[in-house]
Write a structure and sequence with these properties.
By secondary structure, the chain is an all-alpha fold. Helix content is 61%, strand content 0%. The protein contains 14 helices and no strands.
Length: 277
């Protein structure tokens, strides 16, 4: 059977254990609702519902500079505020972009125990800090693992890539599965690709199941992707197809509070400021 067809922005097929390109680490640069695109329906409705709670409509009209100032006032003693202010500095929300200040804020937040700040610090060590700090895969893993263990789906996905690069396939599969169980489409695509590659023993049922789940969580899957899945499913033995259908049927998507918080963006930052008054 041919390899899984995935969108160019997601994962290319795993050709062998030495082909690392498919596992891309998506840098957490989009803040709030923009990042929800990787958690598409049907199973991600709970994430979207949480976003409606944590993202106030008024925040979109708020003075971003004033919000940044309020965060700055509490960032010295509030690790989560340091993270939010760091995201605003990185993206130029409420003021000019300043990657150096963002990095310092992420480091402060990470050192004080905020898992999302730790993730961002890991991103800088994974290449986002060009010109500011040297790339360091070991430190990238150290800090991203903090967020992964705390439940952040994107961190879990990235940690899987880092373990894959290090040759630890068992750990890579574990973290991809955890991320996929939160409905993160890219992790489901990677699981489908891995199970149809030479990196691990091929498993047609899992390839079919994960690619089905991936398409269910893709806003506009291509006709080529749909056709590939139809052809792949038709070639599966009946027992394998039934096993794949069972995996899809029993797959429970449960995004964590930390993943929802990461998607909440400015709404969560505003709520934090209000709570700190």
């Amino acid at each position: 059977m041919s390899g899984a067809v995935v969108n160019k922005r997601q994962f290319k097929r795993y050709q062998s254990h030495h082909s690392m390109k498919p596992l891309k680490m998506r840098r957490h640069c989009q803040y709030g609702i923009l990042a929800v695109s990787r958690f598409v329906q049907p199973a991600s409705a709970s994430i979207l519902a949480l976003m409606l709670v944590t993202t106030s409509p008024a925040v979109a009209q708020a003075d971003r500079a004033a919000l940044a100032a309020k965060l700055e006032a509490i960032a010295q003693t509030n690790a989560e505020a340091a993270y939010h202010l760091g995201m605003m500095k990185q993206l130029g929300i409420g003021g000019p972009k300043d990657a150096a200040v963002a990095l310092a804020l992420f480091r402060k937040g990470a050192d004080a125990g905020d898992p999302l700040a730790a993730y961002k610090l890991g991103c800088y060590y994974a290449g986002q800090g060009a010109g500011l700090i040297q790339d360091d895969p070991a430190l990238a893993l150290k800090w991203k693992l903090v967020a992964a263990e705390a439940g952040y789906a994107l961190a879990q996905h990235d940690v899987a890539r880092l373990y894959f690069d290090a040759g630890d396939m068992d750990a890579a599969l574990e973290w991809l599965t955890r991320s996929g169980q939160q409905g993160y489409a890219d992790s489901l695509a990677a699981l489908a690709s891995l199970n149809n590659s030479d990196a691990i023993p091929k498993d047609g049922a899992r390839t079919y199941a994960y690619f089905t789940l991936f398409l269910q969580r893709t806003a506009e899957p291509s006709q080529k992707q749909r056709d590939w899945l139809t052809k792949f499913a038709a070639e599966l033995p009946d027992g394998e197809r039934a096993r794949g259908d069972a995996i899809v049927r029993d797959w429970k998507t449960a995004p964590t509070p930390l993943t929802a918080k990461a998607l909440g963006g400015l709404g969560v930052a505003e709520a934090l400021v209000a709570k700190s008054r």
